[in-house]
Structure formats: C-alpha cells, structure tokens
Design a protein that fits this description.
Structural class: alpha/beta
CATH topology of the largest domain: Rossmann fold
Distance between the termini: 42 Å
Strand order of the largest sheet: 3-4-2-5-6-1-7
Strand content: 5-15%
CATH class of the largest domain: Alpha Beta
CATH superfamily of the largest domain: P-loop containing nucleotide triphosphate hydrolases
Bound molecules: adenosine monophosphate
Radius of gyration: 23 Å
C-alpha cells in the first residue's frame, strides 16, 4: 500500500516523501480513506502507531481539495489596518477554525503542530496553531488573530478563550479527540463536553484512544454518527520490541547506585527516567548531573520556555538523560530513547504503558527497567494484570538486594542485556508474594480506569506530578 493508492493530494504526498514516510502504517491505511470520505472515526490505537498522520492527512487532503477562500483573512487584516490608520485600538475578531484537535498535554499538542506543518509544507495558506496552558496570553492572542485553519489545544486553556469570546466554532468542519481516554483520566470531561456543545452537529468527528471501553466508549458513541470502528493492535501497542525488567532495591542509596550503573550501559543512547513527583525529578536530575551525566529535569512547575528548551536539547542529543514526571513526559517522541527507567513506579498501570512506550519508537528496540521497592508488589501486580504480561526480575552482580526473595527461572529472557548482569528472573512476579502487601493507600491509587477525576482532583494531581 502507498500514500498515492490512498488517494492523498499530490502536494501532501510530496511532503510525506520529504520526511521519508514511504508507506502508510496500519492505522493510516484504515483511517485515511474513511477520513477522506468524511466518515466519523473511532480508533483504538497507541502512540507510536502513526495516529497523528491518520487524522491530519485526511483533514489536510479535504482542505487542500477545495479552493482557498482568501476573503476571510483579508477582512481580518483590513480591519486591523483600518483601525491602526485611525489610531484606534485594534479589535480582534474571534478566530473560527475549520479543524480542532483536542489533546491532553502541551508536549503532544506541540508535536501535532509540528507534524501538521511537515505534512502541509507545500500547502499554502494553512496555519496550525497551538493553544496551550502555560503560554502567555498576548502571544496566544496574536496567534488567534491570524485566524488559523487548524487549532490544536489542551481543553482547559481552550475553554478560557471560548469564554472570553476569542474563539468560536460555528465554522468548524473537523473535530479530533486525541488520546481521549487520557483526557478523561485527567478530569477534562466537563471541558470536553462544553467544547463539543459549541461545535456544529454537521462536523466530522475522529476519536483516538488506547481503549474504547468504559466511559470513553460511552462518550464516543454519543458524539459520533455511524462511525467507522478501527482497532489496531500493533507491535508497538503490545510493546513487543521493548524488553521489560524489574530490579529490586532495598533503599534509596541502593536505588541511586543501581540507577547510575544502569545509565552507564554502553547500549544507551538516550534515557528517560520517571519519578513520582516534580521535586524528585529535580533532585534526581541534579544528582545525576553532579555525577557527570548529561541530565536535565522536565516537569510541570517549569516555565513553558524552560520546558521547550530542555526538549529541544533532548531532541538534539545535548541532553542524554531526561528525568521527568508522567504528565510532562507524555507524548515525547524521540527515536533515540533506548532506555526508560521507572525510578518510581507509576500509580496507575496505564501510565506504565505510556512510559515504556517512550522507548522502542519507530520500530527500534527499547529497554524498560523498573526499580522496585519490596513494598511495591501490589503495583507490579496491577501492571502485569493490565498489560497481560509478566515482567522478569533481573539482578546485577554487585547490586543484589539484601532482602532475599525466592524466584523461579524465567521463561521469558530479556534480550539486549549484557554480560555482567545475571538474570534471576521469574515467570510471574505476582505468583511470588515478595515483601509485605502495599499499605492501604489514601491517595486513590486503587481507583480503576475510567472513573475519572473531578476538575479539582485533576488540578491537584497535575500540580503534584
Ligand atoms: P504517532 O503515533 O503519530 O505519534 O507517530 C509515531 C512516529 O512515527 C512519529 O515519529 C511519526 O513521525 C512516525 N510516523 C508516522 N507515520 C509514519 C509513516 N507512515 N512512515 C514513517 N514514519 C511514520
């Protein structure tokens, strides 16, 4: 299958050739023709499957296939110039985009904007703009004043602009909900419903989510008409190209020593280290930098400019080890990330899947290592149940945990591991019962997927992570 066979506009094909997209991925093969037809889509697929192009390409094709209407932009500019000439205050008309992409995080939004710009490189007059929390308002006003055709936004900030009359959606043709399950998990459901209610019923809706079960499925059915259902269970979604392993640690000094050792792995190109809190991201990054690693932190307390600079350095390879929280690292797509280290296990098994999916990008091989305290076994069990995979335990000579545990030999051997490490792996963590059961948590860690958080709960969680 080729992009030409999918019937894409020749100028889009030209742009895809420039960025070396030789053939469509499975999700693109299915979504692009249906999207071009104007059908609503419900797609279950993971990051890394090529889903951004699956919704951007049919949309761009559709826009490129109708003659460009210049008058709208002219009116905008003329009004502004006339106001300036009279020395009056420039009044901005509300922007009225043709396409809106809702996405859970700023990083993901910026990547979508970048992809959209790549795909539309030869399409004149197309502007894609991101409206994100953390970006200064005057800057956003300038962007909106250009009346972009495509808006990529996180729900919270978009709502602010809608309420202040800076954006209206009466001319919206295409609505995309990207990583819809994640947006609901983050408590955006009310915001999303408000936004959808402001869009025309005639719109085309494309919803992408890791799962279409539970409340995501309910919402998906409510907001689409006769949708095309697409389920993609790619290699990436099962993480078959990522070796996963657990290392037991006794205490913090043991954990830090082991982390340093693991990060000296010669097969490591770039690594992402996950911590539970923003404070720990800073502490671990500082410690690694002092130990001589090219390390930096990324988390939600950093100003957007600093976050962008760190991500640019990571992309250029100037930062080798990024220490991040879940929210900040979401959507990072850097093919050279060979290692993901869970310095702390995530609270929710879904986050484990998202974390390890930051490695093994673009068909490469990845290694995901979890540093596990002996009290963490409930969390590991939850992850194993969720991923339907057992995670082998690994022990490195000189870094053995003092707390002993009995382990049967592994059936599944992680490849890509080097001499010097001895595998003391086991078939299933959950069968062994290490340590004590995790203490009952007051933080709602046992909450099942899809129950969502209230807006307040989300903000509290966001500010902590
Ligand atoms: P996504 O799932 O949209 O985040 O895409 C994951 C990665 O795959 C990104 O680096 C994309 O640029 C890349 N990608 C998407 N589609 C293709 C394709 N057809 N050929 C090659 N790379 C692709």
């Amino acid at each position: 299958m080729t992009f030409e066979a999918l019937g894409l506009h020749p100028l889009i094909q030209k742009a895809l050739a420039d960025i070396h997209y030789d053939k469509p991925t499975p999700v693109q093969e299915k979504a692009i023709p249906a999207g071009i037809e104007g059908k609503d889509l419900l797609v279950s697929s993971q990051t890394g499957s090529g889903k951004t192009a699956a919704f951007m390409l049919p949309a761009l094709h559709r826009f490129a296939s109708v003659p460009f209407e210049k008058s709208d932009k002219k009116t905008f500019n003329q009004k502004r110039q006339a106001a300036r000439a009279k020395g009056e205050k420039v009044r901005y008309e509300p922007a009225h985009p043709k396409m809106l992409v809702l996405t859970p995080t700023r990083e993901l939004a910026m990547q979508i904007v970048q992809s959209s710009e790549d795909y539309s490189a030869y399409l004149k007059h197309f502007r894609t703009v991101a409206i994100l929390g953390g970006m200064p308002y005057p800057k956003q006003m300038q962007l909106l004043a250009k009346n972009p055709e495509i808006l990529v936004a996180t729900p919270g900030r978009l709502i602010d602009h809608m309420h202040s009359g800076k954006i209206r959606f009466d001319q919206l043709e295409i609505l995309v909900l990207d990583e819809a399950d994640r947006m609901l998990d983050m408590g955006f459901i009310d915001d999303i419903e408000t936004i959808i209610a402001a869009t025309p019923e005639t719109r085309q809706t494309m919803l992408f989510s890791a799962t279409l079960d539970g409340i995501v499925g309910n919402m998906a059915r409510k907001i689409t008409r006769d949708p095309e259902l697409i389920h993609i269970h790619s290699v990436a979604s099962r993480h078959e190209n990522i070796d996963q392993m657990i290392h037991f640690v006794d205490d913090l000094p043991h954990k830090n020593r082991l982390l340093d050792h693991l990060l000296h792995d010669r097969s490591l190109d770039q690594a992402l280290v996950f911590t539970a809190t923003k404070r720990d991201a800073d502490i671990v990054a500082d410690r690694l930098a002092i130990a001589g690693f090219s390390a930096a932190a990324l988390h939600g307390d950093m100003p957007q400019g600093a976050r962008n600079r760190t991500l640019t350095k990571l992309r250029r390879g100037q930062v080798k080890i990024l220490v991040a929280t879940d929210v900040a690292a979401r959507g990072i797509d850097i093919p050279n990330i060979t290692h993901v280290v869970n310095y702390d296990l995530p609270k929710f098994p879904e986050d484990y899947v998202h974390r390890i999916g930051r490695t093994g990008r673009a068909g490469r091989h990845g290694l995901a290592i979890s540093l596990v305290n002996h009290n963490d076994n409930n969390n590991v069990r939850k992850i194993e149940r969720f991923t339907k995979q057992s995670i082998p335990v690994n022990v490195i000579e000189g870094f053995e945990p003092k707390l002993s545990f009995k382990a049967a030999p592994s059936k599944r051997k992680p490849s890509g591991w080097k001499p010097g490490s001895k595998r003391n792996a086991s078939p299933k963590f959950s069968q062994r019962g290490f340590g004590k059961p995790a203490a009952a948590r007051k933080d709602g860690a046992g909450r099942s997927r899809g129950q969502g958080r209230s807006g307040e709960g989300r903000r509290a969680a966001e500010s902590h992570r």
